[in-house]
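Next up, a chain.

===
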Amino acid sequence: MCCADFDFDETYCLMSDCICERPLINRKAGEDPSIDKPYRADVDYCLSLSTIDAPPYNTLSTNCFRNCLEGNIGRTGTDGIYLNLLWHQYCGGTMSIPSIAPNDPLFILQATFLDR
């Protein structure tokens, strides 16, 4: 078990017998009706991009597979969150907090799926 609350990395509890009284891992998948799961068309769009990565090699890179898969750009051409980032938000709870999401076992399953 991992705690889902934190102040700083060094205070995050990773003990299975945690006595810090912080809430355990939680997920609230689909709880927010304004957040939907990624669509197949989003995946197809990313796969259609022939450029793997592009300068400046960060979240501002456009028309590249890496940034599309990460969820920083999408097929609609509008600002927002897509694919990987959208899935994190859809799962809610622990998965939607970037600094602690890697401690959720679902994170590893998702990353493995993306890497296959």
The mean pLDDT is 79. The first helix runs from residue 40 to 48.
